[in-house]
Specification:
- The protein has a single domain, classed as Four Helix Bundle (Hemerythrin (Met), subunit A) (Up-down Bundle), CATH 1.20.120.1630.
- With 193 residues, the chain is mainly alpha-helical.
- It is elongated.
- Helix 1 packs parallel to helix 3, helix 1 packs antiparallel against helix 4 and helix 2 runs antiparallel to helix 5.
- The chain is built from six helices and two strands.
- One of its GO terms (molecular function) is protein C-terminal S-isoprenylcysteine carboxyl O-methyltransferase activity.
C-alpha cells in the first residue's frame, strides 16, 4: 500500500511545478521596484524546499530513515490525496488571482496592486495556505514519521520567518488600504487565523 501514497506525492510535486513554471517565467519579465529579500528569507525558502521536496525525495529514493516507517493505511492515502488536490487548486488559484503581482521572493513589482479578490477576499496569504495543505498531505501520504512530517516543519519555518516581513512590505507599499484589508481578512485560515 505504501507505493500508492508515494506515487500520489510524486504526482502532486510534479503538478505543483507544472502550475508554478509559467507564472515564474512571466514574473521574470516584470520589473522589480521594491525588494525586501534578506538572508533569513533565503533560509526560510531553503528550509521549506528541504522539508517539502528534498527530504521526502531522498526518503523515496533511499528509504532512509527506515526506523521511522509505519504501516500505511488506505484511508490516509485518500485523505492525503484530497488534501494535495485541494492544496494544488488553492496554489493555482492564488497565482491566477495575483497575476503580474506574483513573485517567489519578497518583491514589489512595477505597477503592483493590492489584490483583494478571489481567494484574497477571504485570506491574505492563500499561497501559504496551499503550502500548509500540501504539507499536511505529505504527512498522510508518506508512511514515515520523519519524511512525512518534514513538510510541516518546512512550512512552519517558512511561514513564521516570512509572513511578518511580507505584511510589513505590504503596509509600506499600500498603507491604510492594506490596514483596512487586514482588518477584514485572516492570514491563512478563513474566519480563524
Amino acid at each position: 500500500m505504501a507505493p500508492f501514497g508515494e506515487i500520489v506525492w510524486v504526482l502532486g510535486i510534479v503538478a505543483w511545478y507544472v502550475i508554478r513554471y509559467p507564472f515564474e517565467r512571466r514574473a521574470r519579465r516584470v520589473r522589480v521596484v521594491g525588494d525586501y529579500r534578506s538572508r533569513s528569507e533565503k533560509i526560510a525558502l531553503a528550509m521549506a524546499l528541504f522539508g517539502m521536496a528534498v527530504w521526502p525525495a531522498l526518503y523515496l529514493l533511499t528509504g532512509i530513515p527506515r526506523g521511522a516507517d509505519y504501516q500505511p493505511r488506505m484511508w490516509a492515502v485518500v485523505v492525503g490525496g484530497a488534501l494535495f488536490a485541494f492544496g494544488l487548486w488553492v496554489f493555482r488559484r492564488s497565482h491566477k488571482d495575483l497575476g503580474r503581482n506574483w513573485s517567489v521572493t519578497l518583491e514589489i513589482r512595477d505597477k503592483h496592486k493590492l489584490v483583494s479578490q478571489g481567494l484574497y477576499r477571504l485570506i491574505r496569504h492563500p499561497m501559504y495556505a496551499s503550502f500548509l495543505l500540501i504539507a499536511l498531505a505529505q504527512a498522510f501520504l508518506l508512511p514515515n514519521w520523519v519524511a512525512g512530517m518534514a513538510g510541516l516543519v518546512g512550512f512552519l519555518v517558512l511561514f513564521f520567518m516570512r509572513v511578518d516581513v511580507e505584511e510589513r512590505m505590504m503596509l509600506d507599499t499600500f498603507g491604510d488600504d492594506y490596514r483596512a484589508y487586514c482588518a477584514r481578512t485572516k492570514r491563512i485560515i478563513p474566519y480563524v487565523y
